[in-house]
Amino acid sequence: EKGGFEHFMLKEIHEQPKAYRDTMRGRIDESGKKVVLPELKLTKEQIKGISKIQIIACGTAYHAGLVGRQAIESLVRIPVETDVASEYRYRSPIVTPDTLVIVVSQSGETADTLAALREAQSHGAHVLAITNVVGSSIARDADDVIATLAGPEIAVASTKAYTSQLIAFYLLSLYLAEVRGTQTQDEVARIIAAMQALPEQLENMLAKPDAIKAYAEQISKHEHLFFIGRGLDYAVVQEGSLKLKEISYIHSEAYAAGELKHGTLALIEEGIPVIALATQDAVLEKTVSNIKEVSARGADIMAITHEEHVVSLLKSVNQAFAIPKTLPLLTPALSVVPLQLLSYYASLARGNDVDKPRNLAKSVTVE
Ligand code: M6R
């Protein structure tokens, strides 16, 4: 049942290229220039009238929403709010009938997410669910569903569901952009082509896990570490940090790299591991100055970046891993994978129960 893998988590990490292909299949028209989402009940008129979008989810699904926000705001220019579902209802959210609410849930059974969906509907909002389980409570109650076709996810730590949610957000953003006329056809075609290349790029990465495995063994001896990044890298390190805590039980914090000096830098001392995600070229220079801030305090830094930056980064970091290059917006679909592998191998090195971490359940049906 684990298909030759030692754990479900590793199997599911390796199923991601297939999950990408399956989630895209039938949703890109033959010309390669257009996303089609025939399942949507949301009409083009409704789409043209959307004034804001709220994305609501828990845990890893929330982290996918952070990337989703960036995709929608940059491609469609509609303002997007993101909330963790357990907070949403209690902040008296401003929801109007022209608000599109997107709930994200692998299982479709998360109690807080379901309650947030109902709250949004009670204000007349149209609720679209991105879920991996089409027969779930959330799929049943939502006004619209975009199914991620990741296949069953068994490991408590979510991997292929997260990355398939990213694909769903990219598809949805491109669709909304087309309807609202915010991107040219050439730009849409360029993004689609880059998306279609992701599965193979991921396969190439998955074929070479050794360097990450060795690094995971190194950090498995530590009790505390930091992740830093800016922009989409910040969104991805939040997911990396959650994954690491969840299954390796190593305490970590994910920080927006520029925010460190507002307090957290006090915790950086000799030898503390810092994992810097530096894949977003537009903010690379700024990230490098933040890397230098921690390096000056003796941190042991590992950077994940693109090949072309490895040599220069090695002047300030101890190790650097290169990931394949795609468009900046799509990079999370690749850059999260070394972080998934890092948690997996760190958990393994610590002798933990990788697929069933302590205190946690796969589906959280209590508020
Ligand atoms: O089924 P859901 O996507 O609604 O679950 C939400 C979270 O409970 C879930 O993503 C959790 O954070 C994962 N175990 C993280 O790996």
From TrEMBL:
In this protein, which residues make up the domain named SIS? 43-182, 215-357
Q: Where does the source fall among the domains of life? A: Bacteria
The reply on keyword DNA damage is: no
Alphabetically sorted, this entry's keywords are: Aminotransferase, Cytoplasm, Glutamine amidotransferase, Repeat, Transferase
Supply one GO BP term.
Answer: fructose 6-phosphate metabolic process
Task: Tell me which residues this entry annotates as catalytic.
Answer: K362 (for fru-6p isomerization activity)
EC assignment: the record states 2.6.1.16
A molecular function (GO) held by this record is:
glutamine-fructose-6-phosphate transaminase (isomerizing) activity
One Gene Ontology cellular component annotation? cytosol
Q: Where in the cell is it found?
A: Cytoplasm
* UniProt keyword Cytoplasm present: yes
* Substrates-to-products reaction catalysed: D-fructose 6-phosphate + L-glutamine = D-glucosamine 6-phosphate + L-glutamate
**What job does this protein perform?**
Catalyzes the first step in hexosamine metabolism, converting fructose-6P into glucosamine-6P using glutamine as a nitrogen source.
Could you describe the subunit structure of this protein?
Homodimer.
Q: What is this protein called?
A: Glutamine--fructose-6-phosphate aminotransferase [isomerizing]
Q: Which organism is it from?
A: Paenibacillus mangrovi
What is the primary gene name for this protein? glmS
Parent-record interval covered: 244 to 610 of 610
